[in-house]
Design brief:
By secondary structure, the protein is mostly helical. The protein has helices at 7-17, 21-41, 46-55, 70-77, 82-89, 105-126, 137-145, 155-165, 169-183. The longest helix has 22 residues, at 105-126. The radius of gyration is 15 Å and the shape is globular.
Length: 184
């Protein structure tokens, strides 16, 4: 069973297993974006979605070859609820040995936005403003088409994520920009 951690406890867990500022920032970003999407899809459960987003890559820095598998073990050792673990580790379905397919809306959102927040983050770094405040869909779409830009961000996973959610790629990107803007 286990407990559903608070956002503060999730942050402690992330920082226990991650030291690189990039990984900590990614956890914070995905957590915040998930909270934004929760307000849209599952009002009242923003903190739960936020925690799932924060914990999704808990194992990546220390165990990249066992990503989404070692995370199950680490989170269980931390006393985290099995539902949180399942949802957090489902984002690796198909790309890792994660045993969990994203089936719930929250899991589908996480599957889609994990890679997309990385791509949008890379676009933001290249902008004079270094902000999402003036970022628009065409700028992201242009970089999305350039396979050499942020090459580590899987376009296939982003497209599959939109399909799993039953939304257009444009809508997914636009909503993710808004979500990132809300936490900037």
């Amino acid at each position: 069973m286990g407990d559903v951690p608070t956002i503060e406890r999730a942050d402690e867990i992330v920082r226990k297993y991650n030291k690189e500022p990039f990984h900590i920032k990614h956890a914070e970003t995905v957590g915040g974006v998930m909270g934004w999407f929760a307000a849209k899809h599952d009002p009242g459960r923003e903190d739960y979605w936020h925690v799932v987003g924060m914990l999704h890559d808990v194992d990546f820095e220390m165990y990249p070859d066992e990503h989404c598998v070692k995370g199950i073990e680490l989170l269980r050792a931390e006393g985290v609820d099995d539902g949180v673990i399942r949802s957090a580790m489902s984002h690796g379905w198909g790309a890792t040995a994660s045993p969990y397919e994203p089936t719930e809306t929250m899991e589908k959102v996480l599957f889609a936005v994990d890679e997309l927040t990385g791509l949008i983050g890379a676009v933001v770094i290249m902008r004079p403003s270094h902000s999402t405040s003036d970022l628009e869909l065409p700028s992201v779409k242009k970089k999305f088409k350039d396979k050499n830009f942020a090459a580590g961000c899987s376009r296939d996973v982003i497209v599959e994520g939109a399909e799993r959610l039953g939304v257009s790629l444009d809508d997914l990107i636009s909503d993710t920009i808004l979500a990132m803007r809300s936490i900037e």
